[in-house]
Amino acid sequence: MRLRKVKGAAETIAAHPNIVVQNEKELKGNWQSVFEKEQPLYIEVGMGKGQFVIGMAQKNPHLNFIGIEKFDSVMVRALEKVIEAGELPNLKLLKIDADELTEIFEENEVAGVYLNFSDPWPKPRHAKRRLTHENFLKLYQTIMKEDGAIRFKTDNRLLFEYSLASLSQYGMILQDVALDLHKREDLEWNVMTEYEQKFSAKGQPIYRLEAVFAQEK
């Protein structure tokens, strides 16, 4: 995936440590300290320009959220949207790669994980880069509470089919699967991403699933 560089992005990000956390490794096991209130913590891995995680924070003031993105040029756009949205004491941003999750979060520290319109990495040799590959599932399982869920949305049918198989083979329990999310009538809870708005407006189906890790007996 080729991204257009944004001039001054790194400097802009560094200038807002109150929104984009800078000392993330020092906060492992103590993430609640960066929020105004101690509340269940949810993360979005690969937040893009931030519309979803901002919307979730606005809609759910009783929960804390962290939007995670690894690219400066994308992170700075999300930062701009957070600033425009105004004060959100239950939202922070974090610039890391997804494979660093267990270095940043303690075991059982996260209540749930959102994956929205992740890069499909369509070539078979790149399967390990997909955010629903078993290598990433292990990371999510480590940092999430036992009853935590992964919630995944995409417009890419092949990635969705791959993800269904990957999660099932890992032993996860699928609780909710939608092959065309926007045909549902009970969508007041759904917060759309930028991509979701774009593709659903064109009539493309949006695929969604929720899954939890099987508990050992």
TrEMBL record:
Keyword Glycosyltransferase tagged: no
PROSITE patterns xref list: SAM_MT_TRMB (PS51625)
Pathway: tRNA modification; N(7)-methylguanine-tRNA biosynthesis
Keyword field contains Methyltransferase: yes
Database matches in Gene3D superfamilies: Vaccinia Virus protein VP39 (3.40.50.150)
A Pfam family reported for this protein in Swiss-Prot or TrEMBL: Methyltransf_4
InterPro entries per the UniProt record, alphabetical: SAM-dependent_MTases_sf, tRNA_(Gua-N-7)_MeTrfase_Trmb, tRNA_methyltr_TrmB_bact
Binding site for S-adenosyl-L-methionine: E44, E69, D97, D119
Protein function: Catalyzes the formation of N(7)-methylguanine at position 46 (m7G46) in tRNA.
Protein name: tRNA (guanine-N(7)-)-methyltransferase
Species per Swiss-Prot/TrEMBL record: Turicibacter sanguinis
Lineage of the species this protein comes from: Bacteria, Bacillati, Bacillota, Erysipelotrichia, Erysipelotrichales
